[in-house]
Design brief:
mainly alpha
């Protein structure tokens, strides 16, 4: 459980250092502002328990990038994001449901 956020951080370290010149990387980085209040519209940093994924494929990819980048920024505490987003009986279950 505690390695989840660190592993995602390592992935983004690789992206930052090796793939940063790819135009898609820049596109997703620029689109992160669109998701700064997701899944909340009231910006109170708590999850409402009811959220939806975009139905547009490109927006869904953009949101997935933002979610994993947020987890990356949380580093070793990144496992908290899936717990609050999808719940579960334990942390491992939450991470599994989140990645499923």
């Amino acid at each position: 459980m505690r390695t989840f956020g660190s592993e995602v951080s390592l992935l983004f370290f690789h992206l930052d250092s090796e793939v940063k010149d790819n135009p898609m990387y820049e596109k997703y980085e620029m689109e992160r502002k669109e998701w700064e209040n997701w899944p909340n519209s009231n910006n109170d940093n708590s999850f409402s328990g009811q959220w939806f994924l975009p139905t547009d494929y490109d927006k869904a990819k953009s949101l997935a990038y933002d979610i994993y980048k947020t987890i990356s920024n949380m580093k070793e505490r990144g496992y908290n994001y899936p717990i609050h987003l999808v719940g579960g009986k334990n942390i491992d279950e939450a991470i599994y449901k989140f990645n499923g």
